[in-house]
Amino acid sequence: MSEKKKWLPRWFYQLASPRWSYDIMGKLLPGFALVALISLVVGTIWALLYAPADYQQGNSFRIIYIHVPSAILAQSCYMLMAVAGAIGLIWKMKVADMVAKSCAPIGATMAILALATGAIWGKPTWGSWWVWDARLTSMLILLFLYLGVVALHSAIESEATAAQSAAVLALVGLVNIPIIKYSVDWWNTLHQPATFKLTERPAMAPEMWMPLLVMVIGFYCFFAVSLMMRTRNEILIRERRSSWVKELVGKQ
Amino acid sequence: MNFDSFSDFIAMGGHGFYVWLSYAIALLIVVINIVSPVLLKRKVFSDLARRLRREKKSS
Which of A135, B6, B23, B55 has its CA 20 to 30 A from that of A165? Predict the structure, then answer.
């Protein structure tokens, strides 16, 4: 018999090995950390000092440089969590479960950041901290979904059962992502439409969206750093009885 | 540069409170997300090292 046909790239199978994943993430971490640090520092200085003020909203407009990247990241992180959870369910891949578990706390804090900056921005712009608007409400549901996943992981003793139920919750909650995205088109809303669209040039002036792009890149790299650190911790904890972890600890 | 003076920069045209509060919360959340896994890693390593020493002693 020839060996089983592999129809997925090699790295996908290697990801199944906790040790290989631990090592590759250790190699990737410094690069991502450097890019995250540079783009967040440059982006923040650019956003606060050099980006022009909005002709209607004045300087409160600068909140966009935190609000939009955190909102984008909260949604991307959710999709990654659901996909990793699905991979864990289908292929019983432990590392995918660990990635999904590590996504939840980061995504929850990003959703909190997006909601908090939105409320702070809403006060001077709309005259209210909060309105029960479709975009805001669906974003609040996203936060509750994250908190649900975190709660499942801490409530269920068995790692495998916790990962399964969290993955099912994440997959069911995936329906919320297009609702968040299209909420500004489907319902009358105070919220302004998306800044970045894949198919069109941004309606904003380049001096305004360029620092925003830098911040988005910085937030994604920061997310990668935090996610890889959390996943590596998770690998160490779950593989604590394996010889390679003992060797690693012995060396320290 | 959009601001004439440092106090102008802090005031943000009267929106200083909102802008600085947003950036402060963002900084706090970014720092939490980096520091907490670093602390956990240290704890995991020291716990595992202790367990390893105990196993060596008992064997």
Answer: A135
Q: What's the pLDDT at A5? A: 59
Are residues B9 and A109, on separate chains, in Cβ contact within 8 Å? no
Mean pLDDT of chain A: 90
Q: Does residue A215 belong to the interface with chain B, where contact is any CB pair within 8 Å?
A: no
pLDDT (average), residues A50-62: 85
B5 touches chain A (CB under 8 A): no
Nearest CB to B41; choose among A49, A51, A229: A229
Task: Specify the pLDDT at position A192.
Answer: 78
Single out the residue of A241, A232, A240, A236 nearest to residue A99, CA to CA.
A232
C-alpha to C-alpha distance for A142 and A124, rounded to whole angstroms: 25
- Residue B1 in domain: no
Domains contained in chain B, number: 1
A89 backbone φψ class: left, alpha, beta (φ>0; ψ -120 to 50): alpha
User: What is the rounded distance in angstroms from the CA atom of residue A125 to the CA atom of residue A60?
Assistant: 8
SS3 state of residue A54: strand
Q: How far is B22 from chain A (nearest CA, A)?
A: 5
With respect to residue B48, please indicate whether it lies within any of the assigned structural domains: yes
Express each pLDDT in A3-52 by its tens digit.
555 677 777 777 778 999 999 999 999 999 999 999 999 999 999 998 88
Distance from CA of A189 to the nearest CA of B (A): 22
Does residue A150 sit at the B interface (CB-CB below 8 Å)?
no
Q: A168 vs A63, A64, A73, A173, CA distance in Å? A: 35, 33, 21, 8
Which of A59, A112, A237 lies at the smallest CB-CB distance from B12? A59
d(CA A238, CA A102): 13
What interface predicted TM-score (ipTM) does this complex get?
Answer: 0.91
Hey, where are the domains in chain A? 32-50+59-234
Residues of B in contact with A233 (CB under 8 A): 37, 40-41, 44
